[in-house]
Amino acid sequence: MARLPFSNDIRTLRFLAGEMTQGELGERVGVTRQTIAAIEQGKYSPSLEAAFRIARVFDKPLEAVFQWETGTG
Predict the structure, then answer these.
(1) Of 49, 47, 26, residue with least CA distance to 37
(2) If the chain, 73 residues long, is cut into consecutive pieces of 10 residues, what is the mean pLDDT of each piece?
(3) What distance in Å separates the CA atoms of residue 46 and residue 43, rounded to the nearest whole number?
(4) What is the pTM (predicted TM-score) of this model?
(5) Coil, strand, or helix at residue 3?
(6) Which of 7, 9, 22, 27 maximizes the CB count within 10 A of its CB?
(7) 65-73 long-range Cβ contacts below 8 angstroms, 24+ apart
(8) Whose CA is closest to 10, among 49, 71, 50?
(9) Which residues contact 5 (CB under 8 A, 6 or more apart)?
């Protein structure tokens, strides 16, 4: 599978939020733990709604959670 053209800081943000688990984040966002794991690993692109929900959980702007990697594609 090709790597997605963006990265994210979800793992770091979870750690800084009291070591929130993938499952806890998934519950708050409305997706499964497996979906959070795949997004963190760059194997799955979240919907725009899910991306905003993730950012909102951490009280961060979208760009502080997801970064577009220029120069790819």
Answers:
(1) 26
(2) 80 97 98 98 94 98 91 54
(3) 10
(4) 0.87
(5) coil
(6) 22
(7) 65/8, 65/9, 65/10, 65/13, 66/6, 66/7, 66/8, 67/6, 67/7, 67/8, 67/9, 68/5, 68/6, 69/5, 69/6, 69/7, 72/3, 72/5, 73/5
(8) 50
(9) 68, 69, 72, 73
What residue ranges in 13-64 does DSSP mark as E strands?
Answer: none
Structure tokens at 62: 């979208």
Domains detected in the chain:
10-60 (1.10.260.40)
**46 and 56 Cβ atoms separated by less than 8 Å:** no
- The residues near 4 (Cβ < 8 Å, ≥ 6 apart) are 42, 43, 44, 45
Whether residue 57 contacts residue 29, with contact meaning beta carbons closer than 8 Å, is answered with yes
**Would you state the structure tokens that stand for residue 28, as one six-digit string?**
């708050």
Cα–Cα distance measured from residue 43 to residue 57, given in angstroms and rounded to the nearest whole number: 21
